[in-house]
Amino acid sequence: MNTTKFSVMDASKAFKKSRTTIYEAIKNGELSRDHDGLIDLSELIRVYGNPSGVQSSTRTEHVQKDVHVHVQSEVETVLKDQISLLKNQLDLANHREKALMQHIEDLTHRIEFKGQLEQPKTGVEEHKVVPPVDSEMIENPKLEPDQKDDGLTTPEQKENKRIPVPEHIEPEPEKRGFWSRFFKPYG
Asked: Is the entire prediction scored with pTM above 0.90?
């Protein structure tokens, strides 16, 4: 016999109700029986509340123990699933963090390498030898120091060519949207 189902006699003992009261509840539709004629524990609890004298009834003790064990096993299963899910998420987060840290380290090395490449250029500029200034060049800036033509460079142009700029420039007309052409006056 299943411990979650009660006969009318067992239900009357467990819930301290008379058999007549239970039969009337079944007749009125307050309680329902299963196809085997037994009443489910959940039906009895729904109508009469928690059974009084649970300790005296061995069937209800077994039911409570079974329900407790069943609920506990379900909770353990759910918790184990959640733990495994959280472990997977933690592993993914650790992997993502490791990849990002490697990326940061690579970028740092690139920045340092670029700084090392630029440093000698600035060092060469600092250590340039400045030729002595000739007093004739200061007095007459058009004179140039003796230059040797190596044929590799183009000679500088003597004339300073200028591009003529018109004195009066008309401002550009304000750009207008498609609909403003229809709804705003021009001007």
From this structure: no
